[in-house]
Amino acid sequence: MWVTKRAPGVTYRRNVIERHAPAPPGTTPPWAGPARLPVRPGIGRFLVLAGVFVCAACGLVYELELVALASYLIGDSITQASVVLSVMVFAMGIGSLFAKRLRWHAAAAFGAIEAALALVGGLSAMALYAAFAWTGDWGGIWANGSRSLLVAFSLAIGLLIGAEVPLLMELIQRVRRQDPGGAVADLFAADYVGALVGGLAFPFLLLPLLGQLTGALITGTVNVVVGGALVLGLFRRDLSCRARWLLLITNLVVLGTLAAAAVLVDDFERAARQAVYGDDVRVALQTDVQEVVLTGGTRGRPLDLFLDGRLRVSGRDEQRYHEALVHPAMYGEHARVLILGGGDGLAAREVLRHPDVHRVDVVELDAGVVRLAREDPALSALNGHAYDDRRVQVTTGDAFNWLRGAPRGVYDVVIADLPDPGITASTKLYSQEFYGLARRALAPGGRLVVHAGPVSSRPRAFWTVDRTIRAAGLRTVPYCVGGRDSGFAAGPDRTTGASRAPRDWGFVLASAHRPDLRLDAEASERTLTQAGLEADRRAAEKTRVEGVEVSTLVHPRY
């Protein structure tokens, strides 16, 4: 209010702020006084730190969920992790600055922020997956819009997480005053331990048991329950009656929204999966390694195998890919063959077309894919029931680690039927160290063949593979095979959108001595011809990129 004072010869007015005025030095502002708690201060302080612990765990789950889902939908996990974490940390700083203005309403502000965080974080996975499923494929709209949506969620979640810390510090100090250094230490100890629990719970509990969508919704539910209980239970006397009702209604609305989403999540996932893969999804399962989806394979429809959203096998044209991968390497001695990857059994099918093969060792990371290749009628028919052949032995494991302990000099042929080198998780399988291990497993005169990605659309990556194999001490013959006239969309480097599919497959044949690019006459039912193979080799050579660097474990070049 305004107060007028008079002195001899002088009249002046002074604005007196009755509420929230800056307190004199050494005194406590009215809004920062002791909280009126329903429990003893010691118990109240413990409850606040427990809330810090739970909220930190939820916050880290949101971060990891965004990284995992973005890596799955967009690819390139290093880039997606960098985008999410850097944007989120930046936003946390902005959120902390913004929260300074809310300290005099710390309890109400914290409750509102937790409700918003639970809603945004809990629904973020569904929103990203919906955008991917219904707005486009791996190119076009999705390539740009998805990153914008990812940044938007990272920014929003980071702002809300950043605003938590100053408000929680204020609440801790209101429960029981202590020196700032001790309060900060207690707060961050609870925060970091909570982050540890959330970081471990996501890959080992939430993701395998609940999946990304349900896991995010459960996390949001825990978040809003704990945040609302802390404010409405411990600090309710600091809130006006209107604020208490408003916060209660807000929390109930958030809980209802998350519960409705949890009830509908299975229907949503089925609808989204059909939007991505089509209407004839037959098998959809989440293994310990990846999501596996089979479509078609019945009533005359060609079978498609998707791994983590990428089309890896198409019954329309897989034979041409696998013939080009296997048969040039089988020219010469081929009694013992090693297949790295190829859990679908299709490379093994082509190997077994050679009657003098004695043993085929398959090293596949995902046992679920091998099981599906054995048991699914359409896929086992496509691979010619290769896994029923006694000569085929399967080992579940990482190809790189398996090669480190592999017997030396025993394999006449090593076939690397692996995902595209541009996929971050596969980068080590296209390194100089990996090819050095593969060379060690080759018998004298043995041959290595590598799927090296599309040539026409990614020539630099293709020739990097060639350069890296040569750096491992092998001599190479690069070649490529084009698709059928109608186009194709299958193979380890394929995406979900046929319109975005590369026009060819690239391969590198290697040996200690320059290998001959020839076809063994023993194999039957082969559509690949010697003349076509020579033409494809010349076509690949025309795309040569000079000056590419060797890719290693510590310096990947793809």
**Structurally, how many domains make up the residues?**
2
CATH superfamily membership of the largest domain: MFS general substrate transporter like domains
Order of helices and strands: EEHHHHHHEEEEHEHEHHEHEHEHEEH
3D shape: elongated
**Binned strand content:** 15-25%
Query: Order of strands across the widest beta sheet?
Result: 9-8-7-10-11-13-12
Number of helices: 14
The helix-and-strand class reads alpha/beta
CATH first level of the largest domain? Mainly Alpha
Question: Radius of gyration, Cα only, in angstroms?
Answer: 31 Å
Helix proportion of residues, in percent?
A: 40-55%
Mean pLDDT: 86
Q: What is the CATH architecture assignment of the largest domain?
A: Up-down Bundle
Total strand count, please? 13
Instruction: Note poorly predicted spans.
Output: 1-23, 137-143, 484-491, 493-501
Distance between the termini: 69 Å
Question: Main sheet, how many strands, which sense, barrel?
Answer: 7 strands, mixed
What is the CATH topology descriptor of the largest domain? Answer: Growth Hormone, Chain: A
